[in-house]
Amino acid sequence: MGLMSLPEAVVAAGFTGNDNGVRSVVAFSARLAYLTMCLTLCWGIFTATGWIRRFTGHQALRSGHAMLATFTLATATVHGFGFMFLDEQLVVGAQVVVPFLNGYVRHALGIIAFDLMVAIMITSGMHRLFRYRNWLRFHQTAYVVFVLGVAHAWWGAWANGNFELLWLAGLTISAPAIALLAVRFLPARALVRIGLIEGDNASAAPIDKAAPLSISVDNQRCHRYGFCQSEAPDVFQLGEDGRLAYRQSPEVSRNLDVISAARSCPMRAIEIVGKDS
Amino acid sequence: MRILRLLFVIAVIATVSSCGISATGGWHGEVPGEHQRKDTTMPAQYGALYPADIKMLVAVAQAGLWEAPASADVALRSSNPAVRKVAEQLDREHHVLHEDNMAAADRLQIQLPQAPTPQQQAWQDEIRAATGDKLDRLYVNLARAAHGSVYMAIATVRSTTQNDVIRSMAAIAETYVSRHMALLESTGLATSDALAVHSGTDAQYQSIPAPADLGRGIAVALAIGLATLLLVRLGSRVRPAEVAEEDEAAARWD
């Protein structure tokens, strides 16, 4: 069996001119995908946390994140599907999108990351089909994509004997993303204590989920997306006339949904404050 | 409506992902070697010519382009008499095989590459950098693995080709490569890992940056990471007056 299956995969030492060209293209697109994936993660973390929102505005962060994500997916597509053009049939047919089908764990890491990326991309346009909270949980698998993608890239560079050529650039590009990822999961209070973000930042003052909340909506910012209504329909009501009606002090049992609604607002128009503060 | 939309998306994904599933059918229920003939063929003198036939000529040519100089190098520098003798013979025979191969390519008017692949070039560099016992083992195992994979390409073409020139060339190359494998194994240095190589094979020999460079690189990465966090710090600390201005501006823009 082992011997029987060999000649198909192994045309080995003889690459044709075509293969050399295809390899250059897939290598270049892989490097671009690595770069934009790291930037996408940075912008995504900024969008989620609003750390430098005051610098750039929230909208700029969101659209920057979406643009970078699109570019990552496009270059990753060229990288993956490019292998189909090799005369040496390293990856053929459905092997491009089905992990482990061609027997390489190293390739499978990249393929899983790619499939997840496609799923994230498709669902990012389907806000209205899911509850924001569920949508966000799924969107956060992008962190897994990042880890898989980086592992795939470094392993690939090593396996192709390109480690010495690429390691410095690879480290430099991923350093900001890894630094942000490391502090992303620290609680806001810890970030304030080490002086990374300012104390009076809204995200720094933790909201007591069990205490009464007071809601205010900036009507200048509100663009009537209606996400808040699907999160907490009894608190936020988008009227026929396009105006948003909301209850200023909802009951405590609705707190989780209210927080979720505030978080889902693309315009960051909903502000929540604890009653006693 | 929602369900329709979901179904549509699922249908698109299913269609796209099922394209080419048949390409992975493999060997089951099919004559081995038959797939070589599914590719396009071109009319040529002495019988139909398939891409696999041309690939074999290319593989033999490129094998000669790196194995002959690498063998000559080892024949000069090795301290192991058995390895030296084998390397001498491989060097000599590869020149003869290369001549035959070029003659066959000329008869079929096929252009052959003038240089080995980057991977083969890297093997050659690696062998050139090695000395002593490491040189012997490196050479024997890399050459054995490379011969193993060329041998499989030759064997497939030998049994499937429809072209007379290719068939006789494959017959000649098969005896050469088979003999070379036996010679390399006769040194007693070939390990059971050295069976075949292809471009999916991980590079086992590669240069790694010096520890000092590695340290400097990690320092650079750390500095960049810290700089990013500093930027976040600056970004989250704009004075309240500016914030109000920004917000107003943002509201106007939105």
Note the main attributes of this structure.
heterodimer, A: 277 residues, mainly alpha, Alpha-Beta Plaits, 2 domains, two-stranded antiparallel sheet, 4 strands, 56% helix, elongated, disordered N terminus, B: 254 residues, 69% helix
Task: Give the spatial strand order of the biggest sheet of chain A.
Answer: 1-4
DSSP helix count of chain A? 11
CATH class of the largest domain in chain B: Mainly Alpha
Overall, the morphology of chain A is elongated
Strand content of chain A: 5-15%
SS content category of chain A: mainly alpha
User: How would you name the oligomeric state of the polypeptide chains in this document?
Assistant: heterodimer
Percentage of residues in helical conformation of chain B: 55-70%
End-to-end separation of chain A in angstroms reads 72 Å
Largest sheet features of chain A: 2 strands, antiparallel
What's the pLDDT, averaged over the residues of chain B? 81
DSSP strand count of chain A: 4
Distance between the termini of chain B: 31 Å
Q: Which term fits the overall shape of chain B? A: flat
Would you kindly provide a written description of the structure presented here, covering whatever features stand out?
The complex is a heterodimer of chains A (277) and B (254). Chain A contains eleven helices and four strands. Chain A has helices spanning 6-9, 17-49, 53-56, 58-82, 105-124, 132-139, 142-159, 163-184, 188-193, 227-231, 255-264, and strands at 213-217, 236-238, 244-246, 270-274. In chain A, a hairpin with a 5-residue loop joins β2 and β3. In chain A, α7 (142-159) runs antiparallel to α8 (163-184). Chain B has 254 residues and is mostly helical. Chain B is 69% helix and 0% strand. Chain B folds into two domains: 30-186, Ferritin; 210-240. Chain B has helices spanning 2-18, 51-77, 81-107, 118-129, 132-160, 164-186, 211-235, 240-253. Chain B starts with a helix and ends with a helix. At the A-B interface, α1, α2, α3 and α8 of A face α1, α2, α4, α5 and α7 of B. Chain B: InterPro entries: DUF4142 (IPR025419). Chain B: Residues 1-23 form the signal peptide.
